[in-house]
Amino acid sequence: MTNMNKKALVIGATGLVGKALVKQLQAASEFESVTVVVRKELDEFKVFSKVSQFVLEDFLLLNDQDVSGYTHAFSCLGSTIKKAGSKQKFYAIDYEINAHFADLLQDKETHLLLVSAMGANSSSIFFYNRVKGLLEDYLKTLTLNKLSIFHPSLLIGERDEQRLLEGAAQKIFLLLKDTIKKPLMYKPVTVEQLAHIMIIAANTQMECFKIYDNLAIQTTS
Question: Which InterPro entries did the record assign (predicted)?
Answer without folding.
Answer: NAD(P)-bd_dom_sf (IPR036291), Semialdehyde_DH_NAD-bd (IPR000534)
